[in-house]
Design a protein that fits this description.
Elements (H helix, E strand, L loop, with lengths): L19 H15 L7 E5 L14 E4 L6 H10 L4 E7 H7 L1 H10 L4 E6 L2 E2 L5 E2 L23 H7 L4 E6 L3 H13 L4 E6 L11 H5 L2 E3 L10 H8 L6 E8 L25 H13 L2
Parallel strand pairs: 1-2, 1-3, 3-4, 4-8, 7-8, 9-10
Antiparallel strand pairs: 5-6, 7-10
Helix pairs in contact: 1-6, 3-4, 5-8
């Protein structure tokens, strides 16, 4: 990918030098170019956190919402314009902590969006508290005795809820991350890509070296992502070996929008309605309150 692609937006960032967020940004740009998209055809939605700053550094439509609330506006945008390619960039705290409830029900609705989670196992923006994915025993300033809670396993949850596409990647392997984003966008329905992303400032355990010694690619091992039980087994594998790649693909028949919008129909945002109908609707709304 050329550094001068249509999606590249040259500006100063607030990420620390060496942060894995730079690599994920590069992968997003690379994937959008590979998909043949134009900036006006793409919306990137985020919440709050270091990961949520990604739309600030990308030349595309963007929406920066509340903490843990990236998925609802992404759903709304997709409803209004189902032709739009909608990506969500979020962190492990933002998506699996504050936004955990939205995460569960967005999968259930099988909304056709691609969610890219920058999973650094820590809250980076607020200077290093344990996140939902921090390992047991992980010591921080606010957990001086180490984390005691069982880590949230987003991949196992997504597989159990029959998500359409579930994948994991390592941020340093930018080509692999980009290829998974491409596949996630092309897959109808909810796509989750959990990207293991070192935080060089506040996580001194899960470093680049730590991941490089553990990650391996499923696609080099004849793995079948249609096997749900095997996918669940791989989602639980963590520690000395960490699988990356497409863990699970489920060609679900319908998404929530399929009940209301048929293939080939004009997006809601492009439909024209007589002014009188809109005024009547607004008046009816206010008459009820």
């Amino acid at each position: 990918m050329s550094a001068t692609s249509e999606f590249h937006y040259e500006r100063e960032t607030s990420w620390c030098p060496g942060c894995g967020d730079f690599q994920i940004l590069k992968s997003v740009e690379q994937a959008l170019v590979a998909l043949g998209k134009k900036p006006g055809e793409v919306l990137v939605v985020s919440g709050i956190g270091q990961a949520a700053k990604l739309p600030h550094y990308l030349n595309a439509n963007g929406f920066n919402g509340l903490h843990g609330r990236a998925l609802p506006p992404a759903f709304g945008a997709k409803c209004a314009n189902h032709e739009l390619t909608v990506l969500v960039t979020t962190g492990d705290g933002d998506c699996y902590g504050e936004g955990g409830n939205h995460f569960i029900h967005a999968i259930r609705r099988n909304i056709d969006i691609t969610v890219i989670v920058h999973n650094n196992q820590i809250y980076g923006l607020t200077k290093g508290q344990a996140s939902p994915t921090s390992d047991i025993g992980f010591v921080t300033k606010t957990q001086p005795g180490g984390v005691v809670l069982t880590p949230f396993n987003p991949l196992a949850v997504a597989i159990s809820l029959e998500a359409a596409f579930v994948a994991r990647a390592f941020s340093k392997d930018t080509d692999h991350v980009a290829s998974l984003i491409v596949e996630g966008v092309k897959t109808p329905g909810f796509a989750l890509i959990d990207v293991l992303q070192p935080c060089v400032s506040f996580n001194k355990v899960n470093t680049y070296q730590w991941y490089q010694q553990r990650v391996y690619r499923l696609d080099e091992d004849g793995y079948d992502p249609a096997d749900k039980l095997k996918a669940f087994e791989k989602a639980l594998e963590w520690g000395e070996r960490i699988p990356t790649g497409v863990l699970y693909k489920n060609p679900r028949a319908e998404s929530y929008l399929d009940h209301f919008i048929k293939p080939g129909e004009k997006p809601l945002v492009k439909r024209e309605r007589p002014r009188g109908e809109i005024e009547a609707l607004v008046n009816e709304f206010y008459s009820e309150i």
